[in-house]
Amino acid sequence: MVEKSKKAEVLNLSFGYSPAVKVIRSINLPIYQNTVTALIGPSGCGKSTLLRCFNRMHDLYGQVKYEGEIKLYPESVNILSSTVDPIEVRMKVGMVFQKPNPFPKSIFENIAYGLRVRGIKKRSYIDDKVEDSLKKAGLWDEVSSRLHTSAAALSGGQQQRLCIARALATEPDLLLLDEPTSALDPISTAHIEELLAELKKSVTILMVTHNLHQAARTADYTAFMYLGDLIEFGESDQIFTNPKEQRTENYITGRFG
Amino acid sequence: MKEGFSDPKSFKRRAREVKELLIKSILFCCAASSVLITFGVVWTLLKEALPFFQEVSFGQFLFDTEWTPLFEDPKYGIMTLVSGTLLTTFIALTVAIPLGTITAVFLSEYCSANVREILKPVLELLAAVPTVVYGYFALLFVTPLLQKIIPDLASFNALSAGLVMGVMIIPYVSSLTEDAMRAVPVYLREGSLALGASNFQTSFKVIVPSAFSGIASAYVLGISRALGETMVVAIAAGLQPRLSFNPLESTETLTAYIVQVSMGDLPQGSIGYKTIYVAGSVLLLFTLVFNLIGQRIRSRVEKKAK
């Protein structure tokens, strides 16, 4: 694979909910533009904690202190800096959660929400953006005739694609996916995996997953984490066929984790 | 030794079945008693209220503009009391609903757990103050204060009674509203914030709509409290039935009338005695209607969410 330019980079990042206990320690990780990077590792290894640093979600739960940096390119700004507004970070970094979480609004309003909170009022722009995002998320054909009905009536897989569309509507630089298919059936999962290949043409994706096959199938790069440390990072082909670290090999071959 | 299955006719088996049945019956009686009492109350009210209409026509009852059942020339225009009730209730709600909701938003979405733990009990203390104290507070503190701003405010008036009643109701509204908001799953809150929404946008565009059925119940409870409140209005709003929606004048509510008349010595069976029950029935009708509306809203929202 050709070396790509970096979209973001984690530099020596340590983070814990209390100063004494670090959940992740000295993480260094490049995120390449227009690729899918998977974070894998056993439960409690800190991969979701790392993911949630990228959009400053930890800031919602009291005073937190990030040590180290996450640089977002091309601005080359440390988004963890206390001088950076977390809301501005979240405007650039979208997120899709483990459990589909459509708002109790219509399909249309769910997608328009991100635009509306940015103060966008122009009806034609919102209309276009809703259609465009739904098409990108592969949901347009299924919902175009009922945009103004409740999003709660959609199936779980459709809801998750709606959440992806909702995140895409705001044109994020980076899209975070936190185990996006763990609550879905295999068909919906396949749908979303196919989608990722298409999406990475326009957005850089960082994904936490418990499903190693999913990482192998969809991710260009994979990072293996264990007990708060980043053990190994590389192209997925290499990680899954020829890991350099013993612990990575043990994990992907199912010997622990 | 392992025991086999018991014979259905054995004593042990029978005893257990009888015990279960007994427990079930006791539980049923407890549950049924509240329903029975409700029916009992309605029956008592109607038993005395219905004969009233043998003496007074519905037309007089609904369209007379005065309520003077104990005078030489009695008039029975219930709308005077209804207007007083609705007026004070409306004033109370204009205080309680905005302040209660905003307080709930602050408690649920903005303040830290520490602040909430102090603030919530203090707020609930508002509900612990005896209503008679609120009544005198309205009469002796709020009214003189308001008279400085509005000189022609009567010393008994709907405005200060309503305002104080509103303050009294705030904790009912805010407490239930806050519960409803905090019951909104954290993933909806995070979903909104992750899209770059501010706390304010998240609160009012996602959390409040999601919690709407619970919030509607809070409002309905507030309305019921305001309609049924007696002491504050009896003390501070005056006891003059008046078909008017002017908050600056004195007025009389259904509840205040009941108190006023009940304290006199009316002969049982007299028309004046029956008016107490009529006023009570009308009040019950109002709270019933608001409760039904609340249930309607709730079930509609819940259906929509599914």
Textual characterization of the structure:
The complex is a heterodimer of chains A (257) and B (306). Chain A is of the alpha/beta class. Chain A has helices at residues 47-53, 86-92, 107-116, 123-136, 140-143, 156-169, 186-199, 212-218, 236-241, 246-252; strands at residues 6-15, 24-32, 36-40, 66-72, 77-78, 93-96, 174-178, 204-208, 221-226, 229-235. Chain B is built from 13 helices and no strands. Chain B has helices at residues 11-49, 52-55, 58-63, 79-110, 113-128, 131-149, 158-182, 186-194, 199-210, 212-228, 231-236, 254-263, 271-305. The longest helix of chain B has 39 residues, at 11-49. Chain B is flat and about 85 Å long. Chain A binds chain B through residues 55, 57, 60, 62, 87-88, 90-91, 94-95, 97, 99, 101, 103-105, 113-114, 116-118, 150, 152, 163, 166-167, 170, and chain B through 112, 185, 187-188, 190-198, 201, 205-206, 209-210, 304-306.
The arrangement of helices and strands of chain A along the chain is EEEHEEHEHHHHEHEHEEHH
Main pleated sheet of chain B: none
Which residues of chain B sit in consecutive blocks of at least 5 with pLDDT less than 50?
none
List the strand order in the largest sheet of chain A.
6-7-8-3-9-10
Tell me the greatest interface. A-B, 27 and 21 residues
Q: Give the topology string of chain B: H per helix, E per strand.
A: HHHHHHHHHHHHH
What count of structural domains of chain B?
Answer: 2
Give the CATH H-level superfamily of chain A.
Answer: P-loop containing nucleotide triphosphate hydrolases
